[in-house]
């Protein structure tokens, strides 16, 4: 029996190896008409052969279902086309062979250069599409009415990143007409599209037609406020990105009622009033961006230990009060930016927030010390900016042992005392060190001169003293900015001349040259910085 079983297993594996791959290939082999349509499409498109990684490899001698960017079903029909970032330029019209791919379910033409040409009406022929991405593809003008024929769309992305420019617009049809047959949408991204609608209009258009919507992204769409309560009908909304619109109104408290809310981006919306604290306490919230709303007031509540917050961005607002200790218990926290707010009091410990990469709380009125225990274990921290506050005490040298740290900015505080030197400097990635405008004393510690990756070193306006060898400064190969002004430092500019073989003297040389060389051989310049 054992021999029979082994024999059966051997022949099973043998036939799978011999015929299995061919079987898969046959079931998905590209149909001739599909390959012909794709080759016609390639021929009609202008693209850079040197930049293309997909189109340039399409050829008649291979199965089109194996081409990069092409997905087929088991019948050999093309159902997916990904030509993202293929350096396509120019445009194509509604007669393009693209619109004859009737079984296409997914189409990605993002990040190409269609040179501000109109979106062709032919997209209305692709009625099987569930995914369409034309973001940053270079299209312009009115979005065609024919889009309403793509009734199976689940994801639609027409976003553009041109700041202050609206290449695409929704005028006729307007947003209401545009969405009337797209009830299956779960993701709608129209960033940069000129919609020009009032709060009640755009909110009602979306809430009445897109019952399954999960992601709503309408950055820089020329929308106005106030944000209408009808939006609350979209109970499943998870991502709300409405930045760079002029709402000129308070933030509605009903945002706290979205049970699955993970991202709320209201950056640069001219918001006013007091921000509802209940929204910050939504436990599913990962990203909250309220930056650049200079009239928006608020304060931070205590955070739940199971909060999912990763990104907290409140820069350039009127948020005030103290930073709660519980903010340092947010284990998922990655980015905290509170620049130019009105926060006061001490900085809490972030030692439990092991995922932190960026801390910027500069330009506030924070006080107290920053002991080394606040920063223990922050292995991923890249940027630390505590500048322009009223912090005091000593600067913990343990900061320079954080392995990922690239920027330390502690300027314009009240830090005082001498640095303790350290032997093990792990901050080999550090490119910026700004300790200017403090009350630091003593010699500049030697470990600073071992930070060989520094591009910016600013220690000005302190009370550092002692002498610095010019040769040590020359070791900074990447240094672009050095500021040691307004200290009590001197620079040792000794030039060491290596012994060389004496050349026969040319009698025509100036006899005074010998005296000049003797003087330069051991000359020390003491530059005073203070």
TrEMBL record:
The keyword Acyltransferase does not apply. Keywords: Glycoprotein, Leucine-rich repeat, Membrane, Repeat, Signal, Transmembrane, Transmembrane helix. Residues 496-530 are annotated as: Disordered. Residues 496-521 have a biased composition (Acidic residues). Residues 1-20 form the signal peptide. Pfam families: LRR_1, LRR_8, LRRNT_2. It is a single-pass type I membrane protein. InterPro entries: Leu-rich_rpt, LRR_dom_sf, LRR_N_plant-typ, RLP23-like. It is found in: Membrane. Residues 31-73 form the Leucine-rich repeat-containing N-terminal plant-type domain. One of its GO terms (cellular component) is membrane. PANTHER family: LEUCINE-RICH REPEAT RECEPTOR PROTEIN KINASE EMS1-LIKE-RELATED, RECEPTOR LIKE PROTEIN 30-LIKE. This is Leucine-rich repeat-containing N-terminal plant-type domain-containing protein. It comes from Nyssa sinensis. The lineage of its organism: Eukaryota, Viridiplantae, Streptophyta, Embryophyta, Tracheophyta.
């Amino acid at each position: 029996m054992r021999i029979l079983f082994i024999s059966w297993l051997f022949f099973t594996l043998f036939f799978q190896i011999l015929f299995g791959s061919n079987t898969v290939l046959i079931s998905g082999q590209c149909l001739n008409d599909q390959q012909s349509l794709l080759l016609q499409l390639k021929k009609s498109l202008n693209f850079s052969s040197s930049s293309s990684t997909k189109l340039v490899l399409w050829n008649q001698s291979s199965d089109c279902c194996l081409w990069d960017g092409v997905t087929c079903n088991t019948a050999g029909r093309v159902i997916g086309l990904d030509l993202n970032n293929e350096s396509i330029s120019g445009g194509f019209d509604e007669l393009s062979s693209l619109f004859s791919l009737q079984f296409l379910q997914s189409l990605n033409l993002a990040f190409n250069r269609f040179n501000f040409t109109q979106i062709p009406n032919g997209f209305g022929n692709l009625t099987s599409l569930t995914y369409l991405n034309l973001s940053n593809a270079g299209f312009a003008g009115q979005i065609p009415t024919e889009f309403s024929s793509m009734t199976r769309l689940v994801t639609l992305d027409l976003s553009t990143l041109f700041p202050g420019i609206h290449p695409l617009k929704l005028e006729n049809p307007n947003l209401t007409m545009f969405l009337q047959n797209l009830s299956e949408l779960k993701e709608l991204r129209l960033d940069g599209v000129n919609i020009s609608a009032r709060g009640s209009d755009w909110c009602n258009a979306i809430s009445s037609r897109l019952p399954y919507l999960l992601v709503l992204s309408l950055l820089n769409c020329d929308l106005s406020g106030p944000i209408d309560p009808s939006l609350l009908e979209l109970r499943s909304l998870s991502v709300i990105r409405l930045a760079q619109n002029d709402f000129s109104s308070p933030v509605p408290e009903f945002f706290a009622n979205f049970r699955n809310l993970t991202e709320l981006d209201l950056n640069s919306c001219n918001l006013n009033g007091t921000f509802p604290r209940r929204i910050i306490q939504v436990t599913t919230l990962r990203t909250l961006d309220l930056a650049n709303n200079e009239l928006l007031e608020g304060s931070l509540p205590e955070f739940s230990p199971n909060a999912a917050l990763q990104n907290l961005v409140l820069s350039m607002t009127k948020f005030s009060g103290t930073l709660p200790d519980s903010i340092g218990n947010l284990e998922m926290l990655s980015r905290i930016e509170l620049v130019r707010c009105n926060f006061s009091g001490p900085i809490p410990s972030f030692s439990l927030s092991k995922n932190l990469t960026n801390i910027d709380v500069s330009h506030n009125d924070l006080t107290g010390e920053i002991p080394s225990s606040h920063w223990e274990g922050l292995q991923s921290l890249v940027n630390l900016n505590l500048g322009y506050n009223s912090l005091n005490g000593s600067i913990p040298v343990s900061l320079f042992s954080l392995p990922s740290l690239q920027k330390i900015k502690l300027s314009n505080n009240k830090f005082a005392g001498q640095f303790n030197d350290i032997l093990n400097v792990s901050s080999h990635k550090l490119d910026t060190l700004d300790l200017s405008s403090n009350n630091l004393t003593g010699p500049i510690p030697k470990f600073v001169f071992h930070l060989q990756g520094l591009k910016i070193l600013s220690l000005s306006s302190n009370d550092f003293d002692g002498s610095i060898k010019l040769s040590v400064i020359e070791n900074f190969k990447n240094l672009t900015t050095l500021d040691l002004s307004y200290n009590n430092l001197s620079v040792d500019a000794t030039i060491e001349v290596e012994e060389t073989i004496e050349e026969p003297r040319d009698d025509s040389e100036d006899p005074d040259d010998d005296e000049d060389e003797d003087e330069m051989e051991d000359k020390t310049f003491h530059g005073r910085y203070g």
